[in-house]
């Protein structure tokens, strides 16, 4: 079949789940022989945290006001202008991975400048600001086709919003994430102040959605049994404002007597270089993924591919693809349940997880090559539907 000319649009240059998805998908689509361009908004001097093997176009951001609404509007404007400068109409597929780029494409579609666009919903957020809420809604309502990375969100889009979405899962790069240590691992541990005690890792920064406060409370209970343990909270490059929640978490840490910093009981890294993540996954004794809401939870697969046991929330979407042989379950609303699951994983060195059988089977189900092929199938279905509509 003929190759497709595909534009993938992502909201940021920083290492967030949706951005990682975009870059991995771009890499896999390029490997299949398609002509892919990644569009991302950026202020002068910014570049993507990882460059894919395809064309990258940065949409210059002009921000004149502060605040989340102004930031989102500036990125929508940047996308809209840059897409027109690069002949948006000439792409076979315009695929938005977020609400920001989705609104730029919705604007172009409303003006008759493009035929339409596709949108992947990773998850939806709650916004008190009516303009942010309206932008989020418009980005999926105005799309020709909505994709979701889990059946959980596909069902949610249909039952709650009446959107006929299609599930196209994430993948995992098992060449990048492996259990095999290298010299970089020790360097990362030294730089972060990880001193060799049992290490609990959380990825995604300090956010209410990530349930960081409950994890902190649970970790304080873990320390009663394992006083040398450390909690590493990695990442956190988000466009949304989580400062108030983060201040509350840090205040609670002080109340619990938890010291924060390198070589302390809690290490908060902030955003990390992309090259550090495989080493960090391997260095952990357990990954805690006790989120209250996720689209898929890609870091779960990355941890398992690294040979690291996982404690996961016993809720969808995790229950779609994990079971008792691939994770330890915790009730994310119960601090005691989280602590118990972490202690079980640490005390038996992840022995309950079947790294020889169930984990390889699980990882084989989720490859980026398979995800790319499924995307292409959906792209071609959309193009065929458009062609039929002409006649």
Automatic annotation (TrEMBL):
Whether Transferase counts among this entry's keywords is: yes
Start and end residues of each Glycosyltransferase subfamily 4-like N-terminal domain: 16-176
EC number of the protein: 2.4.1.345
Residues annotated as domain Glycosyl transferase family: 195-349
Which superkingdom does the taxonomy of this entry point to?
Bacteria
Q: Which Pfam families match?
A: Glyco_transf_4, Glycos_transf_1
Q: What class of enzyme is it?
A: transferase
Which InterPro entries has this protein been placed in? Answer: Glyco_trans_1, Glyco_trans_4-like_N, GlycosylTfrase_MSMEG0565, Glycosyltransferase_grp1
Would the keyword Glycosyltransferase be found if you checked this record's keyword annotation? yes
The UniProt GO MF terms for this protein read: phosphatidylinositol alpha-mannosyltransferase activity
Record keywords: Glycosyltransferase, Transferase
Give the signal peptide as a residue range, or say none if absent: none
Q: Which PANTHER family match?
A: SULFOQUINOVOSYL TRANSFERASE SQD2
This one is known as Phosphatidyl-myo-inositol mannosyltransferase
Q: Which organism is it from?
A: Paraburkholderia haematera
Source lineage: Bacteria, Pseudomonadati, Pseudomonadota, Betaproteobacteria, Burkholderiales
